[in-house]
Design goal:
- There is one protein chain.
- By secondary structure, the chain is of the alpha/beta class.
- It has a single domain, classed as Spore Coat Polysaccharide Biosynthesis Protein SpsA, Chain A (Alpha-Beta Complex).
- It is 28% helix and 28% strand.
- It is built from nine helices and 13 strands.
- The strands form four sheets. Strands 5-4-1-6-11-8-12 form a seven-stranded mixed beta sheet. A two-stranded antiparallel sheet has the order 2-3. Strands 7-13 form a two-stranded antiparallel sheet.
Amino acid sequence: MGSTMNKPIWPFHQTSTDEHDLAFERPSVLVRQAVIMAGGKGTRLHPYSALFPKPLMPLGDKPILELLLRRMKAAGVQEVIIAVNHLRHLIEAYFGDGSAIGLRLRYSTEDKPLGTAGALGNMLDQLDDTFFLANGDLLTTMDLGRMAFSHISECADASVGIYERENKIDFGLIEVDGRNRLRVYREKPINKYYVSMGVYILQREAILPHVFNVDYLDMPNLLLKIKSSNGNVVCFKDKCVWLDIGRPDDFALAQQMFEQDREAFLDHA
């Protein structure tokens, strides 16, 4: 890896000096299969998504989905099922059987929207015991090998990649009591919280009772169902870059980030 001097520090970029992170040695292949959701219409990205499905939106000379696929391959993934719908023929024409990037690709189509988790019900007979699940429109430098190692080490039924975001309020925040007397005055507070990165590792047996023959199921509800069934749901944090390109502003930022620091996104890909 080249020098990190003079590289831009992006608003969604977290760096690490943790000795455990630096000493981590990638184990042998732990998760060999992935499912990628690439069927959304990308309505927030109009007019771009009228011509291209979101996963094919270009960052430099590569579509964003190719960056994710190459990162998965570097983590040991060998087979990927891509769930497609909107403009599916373009995705299938570009990636084909995956041999050009060293992966085995298959495609799954849903006749109606089933939700990210609900779509898994259509492919239960194709799933490994342990597999990645990811949205096809995210840009990240997450170490997927470390996430797999954490999942296996924790004996997790489900792992969800989480990312710390912060929201700065540009005004003085005031709280009052029932008689309109001042209780709290905080000048331009910063609220920190965790969000889902749209990257998961799941156990087939843990999801089976919840995704079989359902009309619609999203990921929050699936994870809560697993948890309510006494399943072990683990949250995985990594020091990485992460960005969802769901909006035009985010897509423009992703293009800028990739062009100015390509090495960060291609190093493990």
